[in-house]
């Protein structure tokens, strides 16, 4: 009985999602391929919703299907040596050049954090595996791909701490020399939530008085950088955009902090700021930090501040929200000043566009060298679509530009 109900609901979900209006503007590159790709994501999201309502499996549990569909077993080949290891108790996949010509020159290294809203994704997905191999062969680099733990099983700061522990472990001289890595040529990088972890790690490392080896660079690919204002012009403009609609991003944020649904609803209404986070709103003020062309006709209103009464979100997520390890945009300029040079990629059709743009403005005015690459026809997650049947030209262009920057700057 229960199973039959589920089957009917599955079918209904699949059918409805096909007919859901998809407002993809014609400026988006390869628009129709994206609309079709999005059908898959929407269908899965509807199924996940139904499944949660029926109490079969929680939303993120169903969404993990995306991760499994693209799952691979990373193996060595003639050019790349792959090993699965533990760095300070955290799982990592290490990709190294197979040619052990270490006597010639020490190597660069990239520590990479995958995306997926702190809830989904894995280093062991085709696109991440492929990207890591490309970084190894084109940069003669060692790539450490980090399998940090995910929500809802683990909430903030577990994801951040896993990321931080890996970087601290790798940046010991004894470990670096084991992989023939030049201590002066290590970068952190990541896409989406992975860009969030990379940015947060770079900040915390600079403030760690015991840290000797520092990073040379940070490369942030359409990163998530702040949880305080979920109504920036890009959130408004792109709220129904494929791959990452606003609801899904809000869901990721709230799940990062807690599985208490009250936070999700408060964040949907952008009414989740407590007196504690309110003092930090000045760091995410888009009317001050967005270039005028991106402010467009949107009028700035500061998010309302809600007192934490019993119906509101509990106080622990409110503390997390004000924590720069979750929202790297929340640090004062004095912390930004000493950061390693940065590459920031943003896409026009992405709710997170303005997070990236604000960070670019703030880093530059603090004197940090920033290369900003904006894709006017780009959409969130584009870099992942390098494989059949959803192989986008823009993904290859993004990968090439990103690797070229690392070639010149790492
Ligand atoms: C945001 O910036 C604008 C313009 O710089 C300023 O007028 C406004 O007071 C700021 N608001 C907050 C909450 O920081
Ligand atoms: C912003 O304010 C102006 C002037 O009050 C108004 O004309 C415009 O429609 C507003 N824009 C939006 C997006 O609400
Ligand atoms: C409300 O927030 C304040 C400041 O963040 C905190 O000190 C207080 O303990 C919170 N109260 C409750 C009931 O959560």
From TrEMBL:
Signal peptide: 1-22
InterPro entries associated with the record: AB_hydrolase_3, AB_hydrolase_fold, Arylacetamide_deacetylase, GDXG_lipolytic_enzyme, Lipase_GDXG_put_SER_AS
UniProt feature, compositional bias: Low complexity: 305-317
PROSITE patterns attached to this UniProt entry: LIPASE_GDXG_SER (PS01174)
Keyword Cytoplasm: no
GO MF term set: carboxylic ester hydrolase activity
Ranges for region Disordered: 305-325
Catalytic-site annotation from UniProt: 192, 350, 380
Domain Alpha/beta hydrolase fold-3: 110-273, 317-383
Family affiliation: Belongs to the 'GDXG' lipolytic enzyme family.
Protein name (database record): Alpha/beta hydrolase fold-3 domain-containing protein
Species name: Denticeps clupeoides
The gene coding this protein: AADAC
